[in-house]
Design goal:
The complex is a heterodimer of chains A (114) and B (114). Helices cover 0% and strands 54% of the residues of chain A. Chain A has no helices and 11 strands. In chain A, the strands form 2 sheets. In chain A, strands 2, 4, 5, 9, 10 and 11 form a 6-stranded mixed beta sheet that branches. Chain A has a 5-stranded antiparallel beta sheet with strand order 1-3-8-7-6, with no helix packed on it. In chain A, a hairpin with a 6-residue loop joins β4 and β5. Chain A is globular and about 45 Å long. With 114 residues, chain B is an all-beta fold. In chain B, the strands form 2 sheets. In chain B, strands 2, 4, 5, 6, 9, 10 and 11 form a 7-stranded mixed beta sheet that branches. Chain B has a 4-stranded antiparallel beta sheet with strand order 1-3-8-7, with no helix packed on it. The radius of gyration of chain B is 13 Å and the shape is globular. Classes of the chains: A mainly beta (114), B mainly beta (114). At the A-B interface, β4, β5 and β10 of A face β5 and β10 of B.
């Protein structure tokens, strides 16, 4: 099955700095890569996603890059703010008959220091 | 549109009992997936239902089961509860098949097994 590894497990950044989280996946057939943000006691919320036909996608301060050859994708948060403090999960899935499921990374706890 | 809802939000059970959790997807969404979230194992896929049929299943014992109704609402059942079943159980709905489309999570049911 798919194995998603996520690094680092914790990340502390100064407000205004950038944060980068990296994930690798094992199954070359994976073609959908969402990122979820989970604040303490709340549900995971999709913040950005990318599909395998795109190398980079940006939404305001958040961007995701994908390298299919190397089987890794990254989340970039610029100009971090205190409200960016949360646990971030990457995930991967593939469009294959009867094999739809999200495989998640272990999560990265991001703390933005004011 | 109303988001994904889950009931109950909190449950306390004792070992050996069984429990049923409910998930109501976003209106119009036909796919419901279930995940178990624990500090040690992270987010793990349980199963996916689409059009009242289980389409995919994760690596969980047969004590974990589920079903989906014609209105897309889904239930999951855990029989013969064990201490290790204590977790946050999240369901996620998507318009079409499971993780091929964006999944939106519910708030979760916090299950504590004593």
């Amino acid at each position: 099955g798919e194995n998603v590894e996520q690094h680092p497990s914790t990340l502390s950044v100064q407000e205004g700095d950038s944060a980068v989280i990296k994930c690798t996946y094992s199954d070359s057939a994976s073609n959908y890569f969402p990122w979820y943000k989970q604040e303490l006691g709340k549900r995971p919320q999709l913040i950005i996603d990318i599909r395998s036909n795109v190398g980079e996608k940006k939404d305001q301060r958040i961007a995701v890059t994908l390298n299919k050859t190397a089987k890794h994708f990254s989340l970039h948060i610029t100009e971090t703010q205190p409200e960016d403090s949360a646990v971030y999960f990457c995930a991967a899935s593939k469009r294959k008959a009867n094999d739809y499921k999200l495989s998640f990374g272990a999560g990265t706890t991001v703390t933005v220091r004011a | 549109k109303a988001g994904v809802t889950q009931t109950p939000r909190y449950l306390i059970k004792t070992r050996g009992q069984q429990v049923t959790l409910s998930c109501s997807p976003i209106s119009g969404h036909r796919s419901v997936s279930w995940y178990q979230q624990t500090p040690g194992q992270g987010l793990q896929f349980l199963f996916e239902y689409f059009s009242e049929t289980q389409r995919n299943k994760g690596n969980f014992p047969g004590r974990f089961s589920g079903r989906q109704f014609s209105n897309s609402r889904s239930e999951m059942n855990v029989s013969t509860l064990e201490l290790g079943d204590s977790a946050l159980y999240l369901c996620a709905s998507s318009l079409w098949r499971g993780s091929a489309d964006t999944q939106y999570f519910g708030p979760g049911t916090r299950l504590t097994v004593l």
